[in-house]
Structure formats: structure tokens, C-alpha cells
Amino acid sequence: MSLNIVMMATGEFALPGFKSLVASEHHICALITQPDRVNPRKKVHTHPLKEYAIEQEIPVLQPESINTPEAINKLKALRPDVVMVGAYGQILSAEVINVPEKGTYNLHASLLPRHRGAAPIQYAIWKGDKKTGVTIFKIEPKLDAGPMIVKRETDILPDETSGLLHDRLAIVGAEAVIEAIHLIDSDQAVPLLQDDSLVTKSPKISKAQGEIDWKLSPHEIDCHIRAMQPWPNPFTFLHRQHQKSERILILKVTPSNLSSTDTTKRPGYIVNPQNNSLLVQTGEGPLSIELIQKAGKKIMTAQEYLRGHSLTKEDYFGSQS
Fold it and tell me: In the Cβ-directed half-sphere of 281, how many Cα atoms lie within 13 Å?
């Protein structure tokens, strides 16, 4: 049979899943999404899900809060069998969750119960996970805690940033959404309770968390740098003799095969200022910087950067203070 489905989503992570539902045999009653946002230049932010819904002649609702009586009544009027949520951006009340007859489900970008919260993709890379994936679960009032009906797993690639993994998981998520809807429609969904003893949290990332801690190991720094791209971007400050400290983005690193011969070097200090590569001491040996970017400038390789900047053994990367 054909289900009446409401999609509740804002972030681009949900766009492939939304498109897959529109292309299915089911009826998409509406897209419920966050209100349009205006940037400091008074320009309305482009909203790909809303644009696609309008293109497909699907009604769009944009309540400031989905939990108000007015918004709930509009949702009820749509008579959805299922509400599918993906990167919506609002916490749903119990009254909203209970509107659809067959349940409200969420597309989450992790293998729950690991990485519950707002930033599961970033935390999976940051914490050095080898695998990640997507989970479709039935929403309950507790954050990301409901019973799971679909899981899809994938390896995290060695050079993958959060941005690249986001786009790849969005495609995996679209396949999971269709699988979940098929199971719900055919009454074959088997809810699996999450093991609360395995829960880890992935709260929203702040700009300050982009700062690189050179005291960590090369592997930990590499994971952090990849996790913080494209936002908030991994940064540090370059401190050079007799010059003002300069904020620098470090966009790619590789562990060095060399071991530091200078045991006096502290984390963040330049190991080889006269050579054609940029090695920096960490808490466990040197790390090779591959890509670097100065504020307002293009991304450069370490070799390109060194051609225009003379570094000494007294120069180092570290906090601004």
C-alpha cells in the first residue's frame, strides 16, 4: 500500500533521503522545515530541501516551533502514517511524536548508540572510529534513544574529512530510509532496543574546538584535523621570532616516519626549519604538515609555504596566549 509520509528535515544530509521518498510509490504530504534564515547581508539562505519540495509541488511548512498547538494541528491535518525526520534542528514534543499512526522515525548519522547527539559524523572521525554508518530509529522523548529498525555500516576512509563523510553517508541514509519505509509499510519492522551501556555523546561542536592540540599523538591530531573540516576548520597560531602571532589553518597532515632527534623540542615546535618539508613536534614524535592556509589566502602545500616563509628552530605552533 501507499503510505502518507511527512518529511521533517532542514540540513542537506536529509536531501538524498527526501528525494528517494519522492521517487517512491508513497505519497509525500509535506516537507516541514526550519524557517528561512537571513544572513548579515540581509540575503535569505538558500535551502536545497525547500527548493526541491517546491520544484516537486510538495507543500512546505516552516513553523518557528513544531511544538506549538497551531503547528501540531497543521501536522494532524496532513494525516501522516509516518513522519520521517532527518537533521531537522528542533526537539520534538511527545504530542508531535505521537501524531502519525505508524510512528515518527529519525535518520541518524551514526551506528547508535554510539555518538548520540548533534555532531555524530565529526565525532566518529575525531575519536578515531574505523567504522560508522546510519541508523533509523523510532523517536522517543529521550535524545536519540529509541528502538532501531535499520542500520547500515561503512568504513571511514583514511583521508576522509567530515565533509566528505557527510556526503557519502547521506547517500547511505537515502537507501536506509527506503528500507525502513518498506519495513514499516509491510509491518516487518523489528525494533531493537539500544544498549545504554554503549552510549557515547556527540554534542554540538564549537569554533574553539577547532584549535589543534600539539601535545596529542600524530594519529590523534590527524583525526582532529579531518573531523574539523569543513567547519569550524582546524587552526593554530604560528609564533615567529620578532613577529606578530598569525592564525593558520592546517588542513592535511601525515605522521612522519622520522623520529625526532632533538629531545628538547616541545610539542608544536618546528623540527626541520631548513628542509623542504614542514615537520612539527607532537606529544609522540614529529608530524608532517601537507596543506596549510593563511587567513584570506589560498591553500598551499608545505613546500609552497616554505618558499615564501623562512622558519627557524625557535618558531612554533600553539595557542595565541
Answer: 19
End-to-end CA distance of the chain: 64
Residue given cell 574505523 in the structure block: 130
Measured distance CA(271)–CA(248) in Å, rounded? 18
Q: How many separate helices (H) and strands (E) can be counted in the chain?
A: 8, 13
Is the pTM value of this prediction over 0.90? yes
CATH number of 4-198: 3.90.79.10, 3.40.50.170, 3.40.50.720, 3.40.50.150?
3.40.50.170
* Alpha-carbon span 63 to 150, nearest angstrom: 29
Is the pLDDT at 275 greater than 90, yes or no?
Answer: no
173 contacts 109 by C-beta, under 8 angstroms: yes
Report the CATH superfamily, name and number, of domain 207-318. Formyl transferase, C-terminal domain (3.10.25.10)
pLDDT above 80 (res 262): no
